[in-house]
User: Which sequence fits this backbone?
């Protein structure tokens, strides 16, 4: 590889796979552990009677953490309130960005499954959903990445739409071509994530797009069935190492530490997500008896599922899901507040009912 200069567009960014031994003893040890824990998470999700119940809460947490990596920070309260106000104006900008990210995950999953491929067009589409824009591949010169604290340039990505498209096309082949199937998919995912971030194809939204591609790749390779893995939480907890190791691959070809970092992330995240899902299901099971006692003949599984899909809920949500009409819905929620299953929160003219025990699990 030619000498890397952080001030010059890295148009010589090498294609994948790297000319380095990747299946070292240390990497393989972490690969086995990550695959084991990911398989446990996948298997557990397959046993769930209603796996989509978890999607609204887990995907929203992933969206929140991934956005926080880019310093788009919202509170749990603001976020869950915003999920109920989609048809109204959402005043909190950060919450709006997080919800766009969630929408991009669902859109990307649906589009990927149509062709069973991850393509450049898919990447562009995900970025457009995240940023709510019609922009595409970077055209203008001058993009430089700087240290947010010191302002010093740390990396200048490839420049010129033709060069960027060529690099994305080569990456697309690496992602989808069976020629590279001898590499464990989790090792491959680590390589893909680095390469996408190094190409840095968009003016904005690269980090979030790259993190969505991680979970789509895992689903595409049948390593997990639903986008329930929480990888952004691991990255934000280890943010300095994440950016340091990305730079070290570019500057020193330090693939070993980068791949191990990602493998550890998959292992820790799989374990954490499994614990969180178990905690949610345990809480739901414990709440069922109180729900039945309180609502009696009005109890329904659909209503119970709804309470664990939306940590914040209001009358209109019950109406929209056909649970009850306005007056009856109000009575139901008030009854659940009386037995402390929900906590009412008056905000302006609207009353929100908070599943506070679920919020405690999600906030940990």
Assistant:
């Amino acid at each position: 590889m030619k000498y890397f200069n952080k001030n010059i567009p890295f148009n010589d960014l090498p294609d994948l796979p790297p000319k380095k031994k990747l299946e070292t003893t240390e990497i393989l040890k972490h690969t086995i552990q990550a695959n084991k824990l990911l398989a446990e998470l996948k298997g557990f999700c397959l046993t769930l009677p209603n796996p989509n119940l978890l999607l609204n809460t887990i995907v929203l947490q992933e969206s929140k953490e991934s956005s926080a990596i880019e310093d788009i920070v919202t509170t749990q309260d603001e976020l869950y309130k915003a999920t109920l106000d989609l048809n109204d104006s959402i005043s909190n900008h950060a919450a709006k960005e997080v919800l766009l990210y969630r929408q991009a995950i669902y859109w990307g999953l649906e589009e990927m499954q149509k062709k069973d491929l991850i393509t450049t067009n898919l990447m562009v589409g995900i970025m457009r959903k995240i940023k709510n824009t019609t922009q595409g591949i970077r055209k203008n010169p001058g993009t430089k990445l700087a240290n947010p604290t010191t302002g010093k340039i740390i990396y200048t990505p490839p420049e010129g739409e033709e060069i960027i498209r060529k690099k994305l096309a080569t990456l697309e082949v690496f992602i989808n071509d069976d020629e590279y199937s001898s590499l464990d998919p989790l090792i491959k995912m680590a390589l893909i994530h680095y390469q996408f971030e190094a190409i840095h194809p968009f003016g904005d939204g690269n980090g979030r797009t790259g993190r969505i591609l991680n979970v789509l790749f895992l689903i595409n390779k049948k390593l997990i069935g639903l986008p329930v893995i929480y990888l952004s939480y691991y990255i934000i907890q280890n943010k300095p190492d994440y950016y340091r190791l990305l730079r070290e691959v570019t500057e020193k070809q330090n693939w070993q530490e980068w791949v191990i970092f990602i493998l550890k992330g998959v292992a820790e995240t799989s374990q954490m997500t499994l614990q969180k899902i178990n905690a949610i299901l345990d809480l739901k099971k414990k709440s069922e008896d109180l729900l039945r006692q309180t609502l009696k003949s009005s109890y329904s599984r659909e209503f119970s599922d709804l309470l664990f899909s939306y940590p914040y809920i209001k009358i209109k949500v019950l109406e929209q899901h056909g649970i009850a009409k306005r007056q009856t819905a109000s009575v139901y929620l008030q009854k659940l507040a009386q037995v402390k299953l929900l906590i009412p929160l008056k905000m302006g003219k609207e009353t929100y009912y908070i599943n506070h025990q679920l919020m405690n699990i999600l906030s940990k």
Notes: The chain is about 60% helix and 5% strand. The chain has a mean pLDDT of 88. The chain has two domains: 25-276, 300-359.
